[in-house]
Every structure is written in structure tokens, then in C-alpha cells.
Amino acid sequence: MTLAFQADAVVLDIEGTTSATGFVVDVLYPYSRERFGALLAERAGHADVRRAVEQVRRLLGEPEADAARVERALGDWLDEDRKATPLKTLQGLIWAEGFARGELVSHFYDDVVPALRRWHAAGARLYVYSSGSVAAQRAWFAHSPEGDLLPLVDGLFDTENAGPKQSPASYLAISSAIPAPPGLTLFLSDRTAELDAARAAGWLTAGVRRPGEPYHEHGTGGHPEAGSFADLHVGAPGTTPVRSST
Description:
By secondary structure, the protein is of the alpha/beta class. The protein has helices at about 20-35, 35-40, 45-60, 65-80, 85-100, 110-120, 135-140, 170-175, 190-200; strands spanning about 5, 10, 125-130, 155, 185-190, 205-210, 225, 230-235. The protein folds into two domains: about 5-20 and about 105-235, 3-Layer(aba) Sandwich (Rossmann fold), CATH 3.40.50.1000; about 25-100, Orthogonal Bundle (Transcription Termination Factor Rho, Rna-binding Domain, Chain A, Domain 1).
């Protein structure tokens, strides 16, 4: 079944939506874990690293935590899959370097890139909102199996420049930063709590349920549901928008 939306902007989640959670967990997480220590030792003076370390110390309540303690905390949060902003910042720096060196290539489901190109050609603006840092997002889209996809993307948002993904205020913050009203902004995610927050901010929503993804069995909580991006029709004149249920 095709879901048709009239939207000026489409905001994309990554993990579980455009891309496989398994790739992130099985490839990217170990890659970053192996390199946290070197990053903290070799780039302690880097502004982003220094800021992230201070954020880790605040979250721990340990203002004097040394590099070894910070590294242990990062590893613990990685095990918990905790969406901590400093963890995502440091992962993003590591991954960006890995992508730039050709050691990493991102993953997209086969239905995603053709849909992004189709929506972009139809005039929709495309944005990313992920718990992964902006640096990680930029590297992810720049180093896909189909080449550099960044020309399709108009903006990148994370938990640092927008806020937590389960807070309606974060989606309102994004709306204030993009040239599209909430009622013409479509959010795609595999997580009901994120979709609920976007809907509370007045956005259009669609849940993406892919077999094998961790949140597949949770359903979409009353949001319109798609099994792939091929089921989504965005931006064509004359379509009847499908809105989230209330």
C-alpha cells in the first residue's frame, strides 16, 4: 500500500529507517570502541574532544575523571546503547576519519537512495535527524555504496543542535531552522516514541517497519506505516496527504 504525503520537507532517521541497525552495532560500534583510547590521548586538545570529555565528566558527576575513566564510561554507554551526546560526538569523529580513509562505507537499504533521489527531484527538501552526531551523519551520507549523497541533503540535526529525539521541543527547534512549516514536514522513523514527539510538534509522520530491525515488533503506535521507502509517495501535486492519527 502506498502512503501519499504532500510535504515540503522530509526528515530522516538513520538507524533502523534508512539503514540497518546491525551494520551500526556490528561494524561501527566495535570500530569506535577500539579507537576511543587513541582519540582521547592524541587529540585531547581538539575543541570537540575537549568539550565531549567535559560532558562525560558532568554526566558521571566526576569532574576530575581522567582519560582512562572517560574511556571506560564510553565503553559502558556503548554496551547500553545509550544515546549520550558526548559518546555520539566522539564516535562521529572516529567514524568520519574511518570513512575518509576508505576503511568504512555506509549502509543504506536498497529502497532508500532511489526514493531520496525521487523526492529531491520532486522538490522536497531532505534533512537528517539522528542521535548520531552531525559529523557522523555527514560522513555516512558522503561515503555511501552509491557515492556522495550529501548533495541530496539540505541539513543535518542531532541531539546537540536540536535536542533529544523523544522531546516535541526538538522537532519545534528543527521547524524553526528549516523553511517548511510543521504541517508540511514529514518525519520517518522506526521508533514510536520519536514519531509521537514529532506528531506532538505538528509534523506529519510515518513509521518504517523493516523485518529484522529491533523495533519491528513494536508496531507504529497508530502512525501510518510503511515497509520500505518504495511505499512512500512524497510531494507530487494532487496527492491527498496521509496524516498521523490522533
